[in-house]
């Protein structure tokens, strides 16, 4: 825990905002959940032992945080779902901005870069190919 009360309060606020964005990301496919939950965990770990333990014991977010802490990996199903939903959302956004090539190109570049970044994070539980 950080020794400064001001720093702890700022980290607690940032962690809470990240947690809220992560929760919203469950319902909005274009908003990623996992990175926001990991940021919330990092902030809470430095700001409040109580909030950090609460997040670790949460049945939805706790396993994600534990997987990241112990193995620096994201479960395969979560990664696949995030990339798929993000891609669909970006495709709809590109279609919505028809006629604005610069904006469509920017969205496509952001989508590809984010998907590649997510893809490169290891998954320990990735199904093995048959054959």
What is the count of structural domains? Answer: 2
Whole-angstrom Rg: 17 Å
Tally of helical runs? 6
The assigned structural class equals: mainly alpha
Please give the alpha-carbon distance between the first and last residues.
Answer: 50 Å
H/E element sequence: HHHHHH
| Sheet with the most strands, sense and barrel status | none
Mean pLDDT across residues:
89
Tell me the number of strands: 0
**Contiguous uncertain segments of 5+ residues:** none
Percent of residues in beta strands?
under 5%
Specify the overall morphology.
globular
Q: Approximately how much helix is present in the residues?
A: over 70%
């Amino acid at each position: 825990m950080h020794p400064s009360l001001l720093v702890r309060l700022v980290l607690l606020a940032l962690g809470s905002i990240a947690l809220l964005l992560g929760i919203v990301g469950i319902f909005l496919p274009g908003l990623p959940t996992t990175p926001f939950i990991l940021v919330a965990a990092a902030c809470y770990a430095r700001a409040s032992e109580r909030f950090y333990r609460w997040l670790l014991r949460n049945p939805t977010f706790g396993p994600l945080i534990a997987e990241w802490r112990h193995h620096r990996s994201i479960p395969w199903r979560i990664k696949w779902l995030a990339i798929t939903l993000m891609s669909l959302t970006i495709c709809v956004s590109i279609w919505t901005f028809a006629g604005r090539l610069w904006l469509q190109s920017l969205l496509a570049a952001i989508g590809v870069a984010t998907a590649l970044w997510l893809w490169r994070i290891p998954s320990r539980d990735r199904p093995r190919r048959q054959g």
